[in-house]
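Exercise: predict the fold of this chain.
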Amino acid sequence: MAGRPPSRHNWVQVEEILLISVLKSMVESRLWTTGSGHFRPSYLRYLKRIMDSDFPDAGIEEWHIEAKVKQWRRTCFIIVGLIDRPRFEWDASQNMVVAEDDVWTAILQVNRQAPVARDVQFPLFDDWRVCFIPPPEEPEE
């Protein structure tokens, strides 16, 4: 049917791994990001070409990629916000935010986004930090 957007894409692990690895290389090359850590406008087109090359039958569109990147960015900032709080920690062996039950209970009452991170593993979190948290600026001499 004309005019209808493509259906939602159900990402599989190998697609996500390729997407995050290409995003990381784009950030590390500094050709695709601005000084503030945002991606340049044509980054979605570039990612789509790569995804089409490796997964030609997956039907991944630019808006699927954009939605995935936004979801990752949002989740990354939720996690960072939690682990920056007292009594929350990042457990690298489990790839998850950890805290005592009473700490979770208290934060869940005031932070509607926090449930996203409770008892959930995030194996890509270190990669997300590279992609979405700009490194501190170098001091000028």
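Check your answer against the key: Residues 62-83 form the longest helix (22 residues).
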